[in-house]
């Protein structure tokens, strides 16, 4: 099958400094085969200094005692409500069916403020760096918009702003979340104990695109390759000799896969303890980009998606997406981005209503 990846494929590093049709096609090819791509860091769109300052801020924040961090616990009013604030160690499980315990990690979620509003209430020391955080969120969003625009070109959607306008956060609220992650060093197992092997359970992301930032020397991310039923490690910098800065890892989320009739792939991934680094702590940051809440996920116009859907090639992927949403077979309904996220969360957390 043309869109099935083979074990020798590696995730490409794409230079998007030009928005040519050729670059757009490279982005689409990676998004529709691996569901993952690297974007060469041009040093401007997301300044490397901001990335390292954000990692430093994250380190300072997570070093604090739990009592202090719990003041801004996830979902609490003090932290700004649903999906904002601190997730404690083992406070969530990304793979509830495959794991007995929650993920051995902590997180802090920061939402994108609705138009004309300021950032959610933030704890110290994050609060003292709100200009950095806002700038970082904005530059992440700029990069997402550029990638979406390249997909727009390659998919030959007649409206050149089809995806970008539906992700324009100045127009309304969205589910976009920026997340700092901390994976503490693993404790030494006692004699009879097996060492923990998973740091973040197998999952797919929910939104349109995810940008992932990691640190050299802190691997662990693996993606699931269905064709071979294996887990493939994703290097932090696939080409250290030619790339001074690690490229930015991008992956497609469930919503964009669903929206494109299964043409773009939302690939299952996880974070595992790896060989020598098994004991070490690990930091990462993820920017989960979502469309505006009221964006309707109706058929994406244009010949490419239409041709793909008519060919029936997306059937299996789309069925998987519909399953993740709890949609009944044969029932077609247009969801908004907000309904998609609510359904996705409901199925994951097995909520009743
Ligand atoms: O920490 C990582 O490298 C990946 C985290 C991740 O996949 C997620 O939070 O969705
Ligand atoms: Fe993820």
TrEMBL record:
InterPro entries: DIOX_N (IPR026992), IPNS-like_FE2OG_OXY (IPR044861), IPNS-like_sf (IPR027443), Iron_ascorbate_oxido_reductase (IPR050231), Oxoglu/Fe-dep_dioxygenase_dom (IPR005123). Residues 97-106 have a biased composition (Basic and acidic residues). It holds the Pfam family 2OG-FeII_Oxy. Keywords: Iron, Metal-binding, Oxidoreductase. Residues 92-123 are annotated as: Disordered. Residues 173-291 form the Fe2OG dioxygenase domain. One of its GO terms (biological process) is small molecule biosynthetic process. The keyword Oxidoreductase applies. One of its GO terms (molecular function) is oxidoreductase activity. SUPFAM superfamilies: Clavaminate synthase-like (SSF51197). The keyword ATP-binding does not apply. Belongs to the iron/ascorbate-dependent oxidoreductase family. This is Fe2OG dioxygenase domain-containing protein.
């Amino acid at each position: 099958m043309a869109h099935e990846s083979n074990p020798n494929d590696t995730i490409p590093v794409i230079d998007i400094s030009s928005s040519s049709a050729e670059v757009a096609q490279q982005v689409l090819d990676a998004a529709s085969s691996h569901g993952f791509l690297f974007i060469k860091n041009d040093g401007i769109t997301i300044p490397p200094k901001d990335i390292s300052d954000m990692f430093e801020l994250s380190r300072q924040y997570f070093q604090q005692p739990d009592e202090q961090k719990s003041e801004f616990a996830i979902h609490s009013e003090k932290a700004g409500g649903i999906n904002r604030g601190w997730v404690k160690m083992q406070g969530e499980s990304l793979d509830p069916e495959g794991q007995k315990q929650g993920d051995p990690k902590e997180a802090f979620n920061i939402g994108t403020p609705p138009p004309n509003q300021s950032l959610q209430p933030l704890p110290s020391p994050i609060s003292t760096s709100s200009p950095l955080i806002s700038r970082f969120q904005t530059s992440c969003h700029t990069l997402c918009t550029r990638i979406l625009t390249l997909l727009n070109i390659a998919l030959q959607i007649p409206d050149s702003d089809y995806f970008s306008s539906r992700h324009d956060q100045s127009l309304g609220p969205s589910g976009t979340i920026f997340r700092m992650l901390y994976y503490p060093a693993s404790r030494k197992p006692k004699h009879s104990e097996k060492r923990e092997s998973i740091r973040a359970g197998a999952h797919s992301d929910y939104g349109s695109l995810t940008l992932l930032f990691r640190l050299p020397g802190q691997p662990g991310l693996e993606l699931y390759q269905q064709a071979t039923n294996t887990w493939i490690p994703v290097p932090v910098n696939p080409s250290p000799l030619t790339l001074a800065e690690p490229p930015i890892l991008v992956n497609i989320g469930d919503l964009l896969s669903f929206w494109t009739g299964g043409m773009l792939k939302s690939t299952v991934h996880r974070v595992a303890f790896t060989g020598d680094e098994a004991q070490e702590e690990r930091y990462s940051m993820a920017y989960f980009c979502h469309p505006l809440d009221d964006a309707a996920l109706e058929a994406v116009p244009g010949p490419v998606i239409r041709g793909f859907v008519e060919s029936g090639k997306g059937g299996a992927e789309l069925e998987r997406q519909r399953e993740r949403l709890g949609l009944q077979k044969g029932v077609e309904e247009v969801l908004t981005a907000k309904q998609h996220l609510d359904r996705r969360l409901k199925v994951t957390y097995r909520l009743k209503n």
